[in-house]
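Consider the tokenized backbone below.
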């Protein structure tokens, strides 16, 4: 794979600027410039190598060559089939199945999405490491965003800080969320922190971080409600904690009070939609994934 690079045409408004300041405005961080200088990158203007002190002129063509990335030796490339929704030079959008961890851990060193993505990169000659932008829990299915380069990841991190990367979820929760219990749409604004007695479980607690979940009821069954949700914040287990907090834990979510019913042996949560502003192509993109079969069966069985 060719070295990752970005190109910029200098306009009249940038006449006389130092290249360093110009690149800062293009959101290339100081750390990235240091990495470029010392680890095999390059800064070119009109085909010639320059330093960050170069003074720009209207019409200059600036090219930024980033150092090649090497994946961690601890991450093993595996030949795992991936459901790829979209791919370009900068991003990969995939539909993750339930039961697959996003990244390796002590409990799941192999078989993760990261292992599969690295295997896919190797098969395509893409020399990159793994930069997951929107991580999902082991048993949550749906659309995920992966950056193909650390600079693209950096740009998405800036978007996430400003709530520019948006995700919509669909879930099946216990109980009928009717007008007597909660309205057909609503907001849970309750801080979330780690439970004192667990390294995994979270709970609503006064000293937690602010967490805001918006939901809308789409359908009510005999013992469940089908809801769509979107988040203002991205706390660990946020939807699972908030739904349990209002008395409607997710079907199959034993960690937060849900029960296995109608074949739902995992939490009935699906990341159905992802939207973001492509930081290089500069356009909004939206991707959707339909419900997996286990959730469809519950809906169809009512």
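A designed sequence for it:
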């Amino acid at each position: 794979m060719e070295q990752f690079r970005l190109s910029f045409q200098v306009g009249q408004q940038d006449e006389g600027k130092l290249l360093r300041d110009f690149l800062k405005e293009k959101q290339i961080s100081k750390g990235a410039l240091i990495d470029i200088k010392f680890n095999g990158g390059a800064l070119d203007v009109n085909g010639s190598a320059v330093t960050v002190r170069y003074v720009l002129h209207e019409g200059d063509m600036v090219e930024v060559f980033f150092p090649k990335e090497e994946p961690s030796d601890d991450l093993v490339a595996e030949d795992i089939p991936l459901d790829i929704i979209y791919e370009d030079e900068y991003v990969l959008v995939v539909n993750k199945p339930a039961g697959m961890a996003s990244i390796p851990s002590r409990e799941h060193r192999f078989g993760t999405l990261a292992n599969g993505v690295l295997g896919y990169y190797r098969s395509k000659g893409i020399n990159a490491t793994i930069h997951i932008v929107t991580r999902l829990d082991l048993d949550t299915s749906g659309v995920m965003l992966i950056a193909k380069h650390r600079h693209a990841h950096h740009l998405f991190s800036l978007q996430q800080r400003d709530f520019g990367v948006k995700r919509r979820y669909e879930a099946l929760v216990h109980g009928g969320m009717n007008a007597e219990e909660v309205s057909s749409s609503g907001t849970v604004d309750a801080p979330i922190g780690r439970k004192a007695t667990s390294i995994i479980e979270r709970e609503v607690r006064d000293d937690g971080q602010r967490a805001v979940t918006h939901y809308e009821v789409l359908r009510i069954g005999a013992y469940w409600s089908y809801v769509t949700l979107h988040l203002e914040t991205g706390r660990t287990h946020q939807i699972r904690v908030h739904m349990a907090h209002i008395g409607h834990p997710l079907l199959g979510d034993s960690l937060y009070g849900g029960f296995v019913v109608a074949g739902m042996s995992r939490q009935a949560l699906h990341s159905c939609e992802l939207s973001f502003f492509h930081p290089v192509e500069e356009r909004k993109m939206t991707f959707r994934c339909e419900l997996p079969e286990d959730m469809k069966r519950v809906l169809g069985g009512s």
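The chain has six helices and 16 strands.
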